[in-house]
C-alpha cells in the first residue's frame, strides 16, 4: 500500500549494494532496475556511479537477436514461446519459422557469435508478402499472427526497431555498469515482453557461455504485481523467465528482488520460490490470507499487517523458521 515504506526499502537495498561494490570492487554486483512509476528508484542514478538510465518510450532499443553463444534455432524457439505467452499461442510456431527465415538471410548461416535478427516490424510486414503456406498452413492463422504483431510493430514507436538490441551481459554487466529502465507510461504488455526478452537473453547467455564465473547481477523491479501474477504465469508453457532466474539464480549468479502492492494476485510459484519475504502494511483480505500462508503465521496473526506503521514489516527468511517484526532505516545518503 502507498506509504508503507516498500519503495524506501528497495532504495536502501540499492544503496547497500553500492556500499558493497565500493568496499569490494573485486566482487562487483551489477544492478538492473525496472521502474514503472514516479518512484525513488529513478533518482538512484544521481547517487551511485556508472548508472545508465534508459526509457522504453524514447531511448531504449530492444531486439530479437540471440545471445552470442546461443544457437540461433534455440533462441528463436524461446522468442516464440515468449510471444506465445503474450497473446499468440496458436501462431507462435509461425513466428519461429519467420525468425529462422530472416536469420538465415541476415547471417548467412552463421549460428554462433554476434548476429542480426528481424524486428517485429519485419515480421509484421512478412505476413503481407509471404506466399500462402510458407509459414502457416491456414490463412486465418497468419492473419491472427499479424493482428498480434501489430502492437509491438506499430504501437511502440522505436522500441523494437533494432536488428541488434540491448544485451544486458554485453552492454551493462561486463563493463561494470548499472542500468535503470524507465517503464513509465507504457502498457503492461510492453514492459512484460521487454523484460522477458532481456532476462531470457541473460539466462541463456550464461547457460551457454564459457566456464569462467560471470559477474554477479541483481535484478530489481518495483510495481511488478501484474508481471508476476498467477494470471501471467498461466500463459506460459514452462517457466516465466523471471521465475527461472529465481530457481537457477545461485548457479547463474543472478539475484532477484521484486516489489508488489498486493500479495493476493501474485503467482504461488514466486511466493514459494522466494527465499526472503518482507511484508509491509496491507489491508485487502486476499493479501492478508496469502500473507498468512506465505509466512506460516499462527491463526489470526496476519491482523497485525493493516496496523503496521510506515517502515515496519514482517520478515521471514531461511535462517529462522518464524516471521519477525522489523523496520527499515531512513535513507543512508
Write the topology of this structure:
Blueprint: H1 6-23, E1 29-35, E2 51-55, H2 72-85, H3 92-107, H4 120-129, H5 139-154, H6 168-173, E3 178-182, H7 188-207, E4 216-221, H8 230-234, H9 241-252, E5 254-258, H10 268-273, E6 277-279, H11 285-295, E7 312-316, E8 324-327
Parallel strand pairs: 1-3, 1-4, 2-3, 4-5
Antiparallel strand pairs: 6-7, 7-8
Helix pairs in contact: 2-3, 2-7, 4-5, 7-9
The number of helical segments is 11
Uncertain regions spanning at least 5 consecutive residues: none
Distance between the first and last residues' Cα: 25 Å
Spatial strand order of the main sheet: 2-3-1-4-5
Task: Kindly estimate the percentage of residues that lie in beta strands according to DSSP.
Answer: 5-15%
Shape: globular
Report mean pLDDT, rounded to a whole number: 88
Largest β sheet strand count, sense and barrel closure? 5 strands, parallel
Number of strands: 8
Question: Which structural class is indicated by helix and strand composition?
Answer: alpha/beta
Strand-and-helix sequence, N→C? HEEHHHHHEHEHHEHEHEE
Indicate the percent of residues in helices. Answer: 40-55%
* Radius of gyration over C-alpha positions, nearest whole angstrom: 21 Å
Amino acid at each position: 500500500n502507498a506509504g508503507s515504506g516498500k519503495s524506501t526499502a528497495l532504495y536502501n537495498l540499492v544503496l547497500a549494494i553500492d556500499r558493497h561494490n565500493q568496499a569490494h570492487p573485486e566482487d562487483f554486483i551489477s544492478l538492473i532496475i525496472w521502474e514503472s512509476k514516479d518512484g525513488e528508484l529513478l533518482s538512484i542514478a544521481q547517487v551511485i556511479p556508472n548508472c545508465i538510465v534508459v526509457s522504453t518510450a524514447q531511448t531504449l532499443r530492444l531486439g530479437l537477436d540471440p545471445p552470442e553463444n546461443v544457437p540461433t534455432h534455440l533462441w528463436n524457439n524461446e522468442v516464440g514461446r515468449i510471444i506465445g505467452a503474450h497473446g499468440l499461442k496458436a501462431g507462435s510456431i509461425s513466428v519461429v519459422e519467420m525468425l529462422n527465415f530472416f536469420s538465415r538471410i541476415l547471417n548467412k548461416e552463421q549460428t554462433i557469435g554476434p548476429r542480426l535478427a528481424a524486428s517485429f516490424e519485419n515480421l509484421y510486414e512478412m505476413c503481407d508478402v509471404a506466399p500462402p503456406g510458407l509459414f502457416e498452413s491456414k490463412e486465418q492463422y497468419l492473419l491472427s499472427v499479424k493482428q498480434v504483431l501489430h502492437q509491438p510493430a506499430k504501437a511502440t514507436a522505436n522500441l523494437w526497431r533494432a536488428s541488434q538490441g540491448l544485451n544486458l551481459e554485453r552492454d551493462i554487466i561486463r563493463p561494470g555498469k548499472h542500468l535503470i529502465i524507465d517503464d513509465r507510461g507504457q502498457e503492461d504488455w510492453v514492459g512484460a515482453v521487454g523484460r522477458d526478452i532481456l532476462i531470457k537473453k541473460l539466462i541463456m547467455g550464461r547457460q551457454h557461455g564459457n566456464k569462467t564465473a560471470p559477474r554477479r547481477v541483481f535484478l530489481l523491479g518495483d510495481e511488478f504485481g501484474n508481471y508476476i501474477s498467477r494470471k501471467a504465469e498461466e500463459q506460459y508453457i514452462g517457466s516465466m523467465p523471471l521465475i527461472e532466474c529465481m530457481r537457477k539464480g545461485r548457479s547463474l549468479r543472478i539475484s532477484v528482488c521484486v516489489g508488489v502492492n498486493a500479495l493476493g494476485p501474485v503467482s504461488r510459484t514466486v511466493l514459494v520460490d522466494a527465499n526472503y519475504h518482507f511484508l509491509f502494511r496491507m489491508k485487502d483480505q486476499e493479501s492478508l490470507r496469502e500473507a498468512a500462508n506465505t509466512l506460516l503465521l499462527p491463526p489470526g496473526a496476519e491482523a497485525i499487517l493493516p496496523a503496521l506503521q510506515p517502515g515496519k514489516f514482517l520478515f521471514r527468511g531461511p535462517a529462522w523458521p518464524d516471521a519477525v517484526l522489523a523496520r527499515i532505516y531512513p535513507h543512508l545518503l
